[in-house]
Amino acid sequence: MQIPKFLSDKGFVPNVTINPALNYLGTETAFGFGAEVIKVENSGKFPQIYKFHVGDTGPTTPEPIINVAIEALKNKQTKYGHFLGYPQVRQNIATYWSQVRGVEIKPENILLEPAGKSAIELTLQTLIAPGDKIIVQDPGYPVYESLAEFYHHGQVLHWQAHKETNPSAIAQGKTLEFRVEDLEKLFSENQNIKLLVINTPQNPTGMMMPKETLEQVAELVKQHKFFVIFDDIYDQIVFGGRKHFSFLSIPGMLDWTVNLNGYSKNYAMTGWRLGFTVAPAWLIEIFGRLAINKWSNVNKMEQIVAGAIYGDVDLDGYHYKSVKDEVQKIINQDFVEYEKKGGFVSEALNLLKPYIVCNEAEGAFYLFPSFQRVLDLKYVKEDLGLKSDVDLRNWLLNERGVATLSGSDFGEMGRGYIRFSYAEDRERHIIPGMKHILKVVIELIEKSGEVPSIKVEEVDGKVGELVKKYFVDNLY
Ligand SMILES: Cc1ncc(COP(=O)(O)O)c(C=O)c1O
């Protein structure tokens, strides 16, 4: 029996045979690598680790949300709750979702669940029969591929992002693009495609999928009859006046969509494990049956919170007032801060073009710059012996105290890229961290006998100008 690598690496040898599909179960590197970062941090090797690896939110949960939770606990709302989510809670979510998506969503279309991620497994266990194919984005959020491979090994196809080569497009911050023509090709070459995963704004790139692309995908849905997992968990974190566009807003697509959303990112509630899914009522019925078998129900106190974020909740003789407006004001400020940091990091990294080529920050709190030219440097290849973005990520952490994630953790197309999260604190991590990483890369360029576009002595000044541009001149 082949033991999964994540066990054998730790020396575990099970004394019985185990599910061979575990060999195909991947991971979300952000969690494992986080432990590595803490190890290096605790070793005291560096005065500080600059953290660009986290998938967690910078801000903390808004106070009014915490107060609802405290009130619910004081009311002893601590027993089992409703397996689908209390009707009024689902009604509040449905009313809000109908408003923001411009299509009628009913409570029967809503499942309250332990965070957004739960919807991935429910969908893969419900919709995929033997021989069906699943398309995931590459690069993309790794849990899709991991669980799809675990449950349906060999049935996964990749919608690979097109690498932009046009210099004027690159100058405008477009480096990767998911093109419908590539998707059409997958449909022409494969039978039984049942499911397509779309995530926008996207982890790991921070890109948003344009309305026109989504409308073209909807045409393919009509033609080929497949479902879309539409993951818009970062839907409110969008920049530059862009508007998030939902697949549900396209007429008829509610019948073909599993919409993964929740409270983790927008409301800075990652640790609460609270989310919801919007889907056709027959699918919610199946998901509810699976929910009973898996987790019974979402924590009752959190069900009250989930409802109060969008409207009033009455339960067991207690009344919980809506916190919608106060909370929206607070999180809108969080989004302004994300936008500033995203613009700053993108521009700072592009100071070292063409060695680093970074896309424009469109949404979420990620950027996905290409470090291919850094990896191609003589000193990096020959003297340091770094062969991949994974090697570079490890070297940056262990030798220079900068934590990032490697692009290939998000798929084959991520090779040569590094994922930067800018969720962390601006003064402690983002600003000094950018200065530090630029100096590190300049050192690599110079040691290779090449000439960078800026010198080490210029970094503080150049970054200082960007600090003024993004953080000082336009205070909110
Ligand atoms: C694209 C995407 N989908 C889903 C999730 C999971 O969200 P949750 O923490 O609500 O399970 C994440 C978390 O990082 C994500 O980036």
What can you see in these coordinates?
By secondary structure, the chain is an alpha/beta fold. The chain folds into two domains: 5-59 and 329-470, Aspartate Aminotransferase, domain 1, CATH 3.90.1150; 63-325, Aspartate Aminotransferase, domain 2, CATH 3.40.640. The chain is built from 17 helices and 16 strands. The chain has helices at 5-8, 29-43, 63-74, 87-101, 118-127, 142-151, 167-171, 180-189, 211-224, 281-294, 300-308, 324-350, 372-375, 378-383, 389-400, 426-447, 456-472; strands spanning 50-51, 110-113, 133-138, 156-160, 162-163, 176-177, 193-199, 227-231, 257-262, 275-278, 313-315, 318-320, 366-367, 402-403, 405-406, 418-421. The protein has a seven-stranded mixed sheet with strand order 2-10-9-8-7-3-4, sandwiched between helices. Strands 13-16-15 form a three-stranded antiparallel sheet. Strands 1-14 form a two-stranded parallel ribbon. The model has no long low-confidence stretch (mean pLDDT 96). The protein binds pyridoxal-5'-phosphate. Pyridoxal-5'-phosphate is lined by residues 55, 115-117, 141, 199, 203, 231, 233, 262, 264, 270, 275.
